[in-house]
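Slide 14.
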Amino acid sequence: MKKYRNKTPQQVMKMVTIEMIERGIRLGRKKKRTIYISKTSGGKGVDINTLDPRTAEGRANLEAFLTPIKSHYTFSGLGAPEEKNAVNWRVLNVPGWRRILLFTQVAVSMMLKGSPFKNKFFRWMGVHIGVNTEIMIFVWLDHFRPELIFIGDNTLIGAFSRVTVHAYEGCGRFRYGLVEIGSHCTIGAGTGMGVIKLEDHVRTLPGATLSPYLVRVRAGSVVGWNPPQVQRTDFTKKETIEEN
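Slide 15: predicted structure.
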């Protein structure tokens, strides 16, 4: 979407989080539920009603809560699906019309071969993609919030890879965050990753699963199988360092 273009990952993360909080306040009041947001994957978190940007106190609380911006946040208190007043986490995320549009766009994108047109198609969805980047056939880029995906220049995403920005944990609890893939990276076919930051010149071997094992991979690393082992090259000493 246009409003997310030419923004930094932190700016987009802030925009998305505020949008969800605003929707959560409306839905929570309608369903008579108290919804919470946390800066970590655990813990009860903060009542989103105290972060209402429509009030002076809420705006101040919201700015303090979002300083600094985190790479991921967790919503809870939505209720289990069988509860009559449960808030559906998908509804909290985006309006129905956009959920349908994004699902359709992702289904189409998976059938497209790597080409400049495919990159334009992903950018239309909201994904941030650099120049000379190739995304192969059957790559799944999360339709939950594609604007939270950032891919650098001269990077290759191998076929059948999966990039997700969210994880639903059941009973009305889900987390979401940024996926940042640097420049000059090679993502092997079938690689799976969630919320993570890959620095430049990272290479993953085919079939590797990065998340939840890793949240950051340093520049020049090679990531192997499950659970992944990382070999990081020290370019100054010309030696390889094992990371556990």
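Speaker note: The longest strand covers residues 72-76.
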